[in-house]
Amino acid sequence: MSHLSRLADAHPDIPPAVLLKIELLRHGVRLLEEDSGTRHYHHHDEKGQRPHVEVRAHLQGSIQLPDGPHVFIAHNAASPYALHRSERSLRLSVDPRRDGREEVLCEVIGGPRFRWAADRTSGGTPMATIFSPSLGGACGPIASFLLRHCEFTVRDEECRFCSWVRMGKSTEMRPDVAEMRETLRAIHAEQQSIGYLAFSGGSLLNRTKEADAFLSYMATVRETGIALPPTVAAIQALDRADSVRLQQAGFDYVCYSMEVWDEVSWREVLPGKNRSVGRSRWMACLEEAVDVFGPGRVLCNFVAGIETAVANGFDSPRAAAASTLEGFRWCYERGIYPKYAVWIGGGGARFGTRPPAPLEYYADLVTGRQAMYNEYAIPVPDTDCHRCLTQSCEGDLAMLDPDRHGLGAAASPAWQRHAPVAIAH
């Protein structure tokens, strides 16, 4: 029996391509070819920004599976899955026992590889350290890490799934505004359109000061005169007055991510956020933000599966998934749009060496999430597109109801004319 057949038999209610996507996210991929992804920069990884480093360790991107799902891929030398080139095609194979008996699963289409991601500004700064192709999305979304420092790391209180804050010495605290404008113009000149623009970064104990950076850089990108795509501020939960400031500055969405729903797991996984804000206040900020931005324009992400890494936590994968689904429902009932990302281990994260959440956990999670999607009528964010949601399956399952899901601005016909999904390597 083939590997895919075994997956399908174990979970017959979930499309096999979705199960394979979850597997690739859980385990990563051995990228056997240096041209299978785009080189990325951890913003605190000073060594990784030097010219002569192991290329594969810094590769990430996306691939499109035969039945349509687009999946984020990152190199993991220990993964049972491998991506390799045969003549002109990319093939995905699996060696579950790592005994040299690889089974070819399917041919895949490589995601976009943009020239600007390998270019430098006039000042010599890699453009990929200023903006990054967001999770390898095929519609060209970009993200910028505005704060290259997280104060939670000072007392070893960073989020336990986060790796980019412990990759080495930071070369700069914030991107230079002139280089930011130059890079954005280069991106727009090549892509012609951008799926969405996400601002993120490290956390500060003074959340108003953290919001100041988002306001400053939003003004910077507006000064370019480029028509902006849907914008989202992925930031710590802010009090009402600061939420108002973000809304008035022109952000379309805010994402105040709970990351974990279970109260015990919250304290264990998010020690910095637990001390500086607290779970109850975080939830209150989410509700206040709905009053400011409106229903469906306040997002809340969960790192799905990280709760299974908490010692003495849940009795079973099903109980862990049920907890996170409870968080989804709490959001839906308050006009907050719940999102999730499959937990990816590795890197320098505190929980990076702990086993990934079982496939059974995700089987319960994705089917439960889809049931709620059908139950609640909150508008799907314009930042969402099944080609850009490479680290979750919500877009793939939602395409079963395309009339309601829509594709958002990120998948407009105008973008299709500029950059078809399959971009040549």
Q: What would you say this structure looks like, in words?
A:
It is a single chain. The protein has two domains: 3-110, no CATH class; 115-417, TIM Barrel, CATH 3.20.20. It is 32% helix and 16% strand. The protein has 13 helices and 14 strands. The protein has helices at 3-10, 16-27, 177-191, 207-222, 240-249, 263-269, 271-276, 279-293, 317-332, 359-375, 394-398, 402-405, 413-418; strands at residues 30-31, 38-39, 59-64, 70-74, 81-86, 89-94, 103-110, 132-133, 142-147, 197-201, 231-234, 253-255, 298-304, 337-342. Helix 5 (240-249) links the parallel strand 11 (231-234) and strand 12 (253-255). Helix 4 runs parallel beside helix 5, helix 5 (240-249) runs parallel beside helix 8 (279-293) and helix 9 (317-332) runs parallel beside helix 10 (359-375). The longest helix has 17 residues, at 359-375. It starts with a helix and ends in a 7-residue tail after the last helix.
What's the structural blueprint in terms of helices and strands?
Elements lengths: L2 H8 L5 H12 L2 E2 L6 E2 L19 E6 L5 E5 L6 E6 L2 E6 L8 E8 L21 E2 L8 E6 L29 H15 L5 E5 L5 H16 L8 E4 L5 H10 L3 E3 L7 H7 L1 H6 L2 H15 L4 E7 L12 H16 L4 E6 L16 H17 L18 H5 L3 H4 L7 H6 L7
Parallel strand pairs: 1-5, 9-10, 10-11, 11-12, 12-13, 13-14
Antiparallel strand pairs: 2-3, 3-4, 3-7, 5-6, 6-7, 8-9
